[in-house]
Design a protein that fits this description.
Blueprint: H1 4-20, E1 51-52, E2 55-56, H2 57-71, H3 77-93, H4 103-107, H5 109-135, E3 146-149, E4 152-155, H6 159-183, H7 191-196, H8 202-211, H9 223-236, H10 260-268, H11 271-275, H12 278-283, E5 287-288, E6 297-299, E7 308-309, H13 317-330, E8 338-339, H14 343-352, H15 360-373, H16 393-396, H17 400-403, E9 405-406
Parallel strand pairs: 6-9
Antiparallel strand pairs: 1-2, 3-4, 5-6, 7-8
Helix pairs in contact: 1-14, 1-15, 2-6, 2-9, 3-5, 8-9, 10-15, 13-14
Length: 407
Amino acid sequence: MVEWDFLLEITEDLSKIGRKHRDAPRFNEVEPFKYYFTGEGKIKYEELDEYDGKFTRREILSRYLLVSVVLDQGPDMIGVRELLKRVTTALYRQEIRIFHRPVDFFKEIGISIDEILSKHDSIKRLRAEDWARENKSSPSKYNLFFAQSMRGMISTKQVLDYAIHRWGVPLCVPLLIEKDLMSCGKISSQPLVDYIESHFSAEKMARQLKNHERYGLGSAIGDKACHLFAKMYVSVLKLVKYRRNDNGWTGFSYEVPFDSNAGRVLFRTGFLLEIASLEDYEKWEVIQKKRGKGGLNYIRVTNIRGKKTTKIPSTSRFFSDYVRVVKNYLKMGQPRTIKIQRIPNLLIYELTKYGHDYSVADFDDGLMYVGTNYCFNHSDPKCKDCPLNKLCKGYNEKENLITDYRT
């Protein structure tokens, strides 16, 4: 049987940690957008719909966010965010206003690529040593350029591929929407915002970021990045305009943007093993035997999506609450089975019954904080200092959950 008290307690603790240590991108440090923010770095929400050229500030921030989450799929989140900030600032200083006029990126592709290369070199000098220490790697391997392959994200040296696929594709989305509107004799000061909020829920929107036949980013964006966009748009930056009071756009109306940090923490603590068996995870290739670093077992958490648990019977009150969450908040229709990636949504919903108002963003930020500060992806994590160690089954009962698995 599922230990619901354990799952609720660890969800609450992670959400508390995440709320305290919010993973908020510092868009206020991007020179062209500084006046969108107060001196304390907070968005001037009352001015979000003011025009900046042809478009509203809300629209420009949404465009920047879309490129940001695509780049955040890279190997060093601090580095890729700094790269985007520095390149954007450098291009705008040369009147290459890629978020106001996305076509500028392509018209001046030589300058765009030169700035990406030069800013990457400067960030490598700043970040490589710390990154190597954190990942038990070599500074010479530091590289923010990445591409999609059958093995997932891989490092690449081809900057043109990276620039067009990772920068160009998300920049094309608002450009294409704007062109389509113009062909119908329409104009909008926030075409991307209108498109984003045309969906019934943040979860549906996240899926369409990748899969929409005309505007979907396809292989340029992963499931994690799609859900990271939803998290940032709804709960962190709070850019929602039209659907603020809509159940489909609440703090648990999108799924967790699972990444390696999330997978590592959820597996080692025993969270995932409450929901399905080790054999199930091996069958689904969430756990891949001896395919991790040093010949250890590899956790590929993204393979969880779509997998179903049989541990929660349809007669359980938790099942009926799960149905409510999926239908009323994710807006995904009547479920017959429970999908594992939606269990955090259920648990966060359950916590509302105890007076809490946590969001998926809080839970995910907790996973990020623990994963990057304590639950390292090597043989010497900081378990004794970890704020989850009283609950963690890897620390208290099954050390092999820590020693034998990597992400």
